[in-house]
Structures are given as structure tokens and as C-alpha cells.
Amino acid sequence: MEVSSIDQVAVGTVTLSSYKLNELKAFDETKTGVKGLVDKGLKKIPSLFHHQQPHNNNNKSHKLSSNLCSSEHTTIPVIDLEDVLLNKDPMKRQQVVSRIREACETWGFFQVVNHGIPLSVLEDMKDGVRRFIEQDDEVKKEFYTRDQNKTFIYNSNFDLYSSPALNWRDTFMCYLAPDNPKPEELPLVCRDILLEYGNNIMELGIALFELLSEALGLHSNYLKDIGCTDGLVSLCHYYPSCPEPELTLGTTKHSDNNFVTVLLQDHIGGLQVLHQDKWIDIPPVSGALVVNIGDLVQLITNDIFKSVEHRVLANDIGPRISVASFFCSGVRSSSKLYGPIKELLSEDNPAKYRETTVEEYVAYFNAKGLDGTKALDHFRV
């Protein structure tokens, strides 16, 4: 049914029908997210979660179709960091650097094992996410907000009012650096593990940025020195089981609005990367962490390293737990400008992007929402 102009409501840069806006507000005001819908025992998902393009490869049994490559034949690289973190042998380090360079140029994704973070910390972090989301609703609601200035932000769908369709997930986000959160700003049920996990990820991130710098032919501290490790934000996702997974997505196709993401995923799977126009499963590997290049690294490397689109399928099994740690200061960034690194440019390879601040980039990304387009294209010259 066509809606007349009088029934249209502008929300930011998006125009919604008054009916859809009321539906979105009603969902938002429950403050219980997607899990709240599941707890009611619904058998049909609300139309707000229906995605326009069908994903025939996203049925309940996850059978592979012609537009999805099986991970048995194609998969992202798995890189062992043990020799780099524990051994100073320059030959072994160079081998790891070469593998990382190839992964960043061709995939934009790789997994790391023997990364130095104990398995017990990884498991405790996943348990912490579950504890928070599954606690009593009235306690959890106290943290529900869309105020980006808060240190701890719990809600469902950050782009609730701007995306074409909602994703089947709930999320809490925590700023861990550059400003250390005060303990009282964090929920008691996951406070200690959030801080411990954040410290471990920061240590690993610094090591990864050294390897990425070397992979670009720069001195090992280059990316750290220009501020790539200054900010750290953890996004903790909870994907409930879905009664109609073929109609929706856990996370819409997107690339990340940061420098680098380090992702912890559980055993359920569902993460896919778009490689050579095919969706490739990223199978969970016990104890491994997924590393992917963000838009800001593609921008500063002038397309040498690729920020690749990825998505998460909805599933009738759940909940799926993941923790995405973003090396990025988000809306709390300074006025520092980032553009293509001068050392990587030449007459034959001129700058492909204009300079921007992290704050401007993230603000544009957030306003646009997960609409299936790349924010990076907006910054090309």
C-alpha cells in the first residue's frame, strides 16, 4: 500500500512511514531486544526483520548453494603467531609477515592461533556476554541506551531507525581505550572479564599492528605511532535462535568502520566473507581469533590492504555469541586527519582517498547504517 506524504516521517537522513516508525519505537521501548521477542515464543519473525533480497543459501540446514563456496575448498588463512610472539628468529618473523601481507591483500581476513591469550579468558569472555544478555530484564534495562557518549551501551540494532531491515541480534558495546572505563560504569556480571579481555586484546593488537606495518614495508611502530592502537571498543553480540532464519540476517553485509577488528566467535558459526563475488564460510577454529582489515586501514594504505564485506547468517540454533574488538576511537576520536600514507604513494600510485578524521568517518557510517553499501566509497577522490 502506498503511503501518502502526510504519513511520512523524517528521522535523520531517512524517511519512514509513520506506521514503521511506530513499530520501531515500540520494539525499541521494550528494551529487551531480539531476545525479548524469542522469550515470548514467537513462531513468525516481525516484518521489520525481513530482508528484501532472499538468501537461498541461508536456510535452516545451511546447505550450500551455487553462490556459496564450501569452506572445504576455500577458506581464509590460519596464521600461527607462536614463532613471532615467543621467538625472535627474524627468518620466521619474515615468513609470518609475508603470510599476513598476502592475506591482507587478497582476503582482508585471516585467523590467528597461538596468539598468547589463554583459552580460559576467551571462554570467560563469551560467558560474560551470555550472563549480561540473559540476566533479569529489569536489571539489563538500566543499561539500555542509544547515547554514544556512554562508556557502556546496550541496545538492539545501532542503526534501528536508518537501516532498511533490522538484524537478528542484540549488542552491548564498551569503550576500553583511550580512556579506561571506571568499574562502576560497567555491569557487575561482566565487569572483570571485559577489563581483562580488553587488556589482552590491546597487547595482541599492538603486536598485530607491528606485523602489519612491516608487511607494508614500514618500520614496525609506524601504525602504532600514527594512532591506530589508541582506541579500543568491544562490541559483544548475542544472536538468538531464529524461527525463520531464511527471511533475515544476523548482520547485514558490511565492511568495518575502523582500523582493524579482532573477533572472538563461538562454535556455532555463520560468519561469511565476500571473496571473488562468492560468500565463503569462516569456520570457527577452537582457540583462534579472526582478524580483519577495516575501512580506515584500506584508506591509509591506498587500497593495498582490503577491507572486505562480510555478514552473519541467522540460524535456528542459538544463541550465537561473538565479541568484535574494534581498534578505533569511534566518536571519541581527536581531530587528527588520516589519509593515504605518503610513503606508499608514487606518481603511478596517487592518493585515492581524501583525508578524514575517525570521528567523521564513524559518524557517516553510523548515519548511513548497514544498508548494504560501502561507506569507504564516500571518501574516494
Labels describing this entry:
381 residues, alpha+beta, Jelly Rolls, 8-stranded mixed beta sheet, 5-stranded mixed beta sheet, 17 strands, 28% helix, globular, DIOX_N, IPNS-like_sf
Describe what is shown at a glance.
With 381 residues, the protein is α+β, with helices and mostly antiparallel strands. The chain contains ten helices and 17 strands. The protein is globular.
List the helices and strands and how they pair.
Layout: E1 8-11, E2 14-17, H1 18-30, H2 33-39, E3 68-69, E4 78-80, H3 82-86, H4 90-106, E5 109-113, H5 119-133, H6 137-141, E6 152-155, E7 170-177, H7 191-215, H8 222-225, E8 232-239, E9 249-254, E10 260-265, E11 271-275, E12 278-281, E13 289-293, H9 295-300, E14 310-313, E15 320-327, E16 337-338, E17 356-357, H10 358-368
Parallel strand pairs: 3-12, 4-5
Antiparallel strand pairs: 1-2, 5-13, 6-7, 7-8, 8-15, 9-14, 10-13, 10-15, 11-12, 11-14, 16-17
Helix pairs in contact: 4-7, 5-7
Molecular structure report:
By secondary structure, this protein is α+β, with helices and mostly antiparallel strands. It has a single domain (31-379), classed as Jelly Rolls, CATH 2.60.120.330. It is 28% helix and 21% strand. The protein contains ten helices and 17 strands. It has helices at residues 18-30, 33-39, 82-86, 90-106, 119-133, 137-141, 191-215, 222-225, 295-300, 358-368; strands at residues 8-11, 14-17, 68-69, 78-80, 109-113, 152-155, 170-177, 232-239, 249-254, 260-265, 271-275, 278-281, 289-293, 310-313, 320-327, 337-338, 356-357. Strands 4-5-13-10-15-8-7-6 form an eight-stranded mixed sheet. A hairpin with a 2-residue loop joins strand 11 (271-275) and strand 12. The model is unreliable at 1-6 and 56-72 (pLDDT under 50).
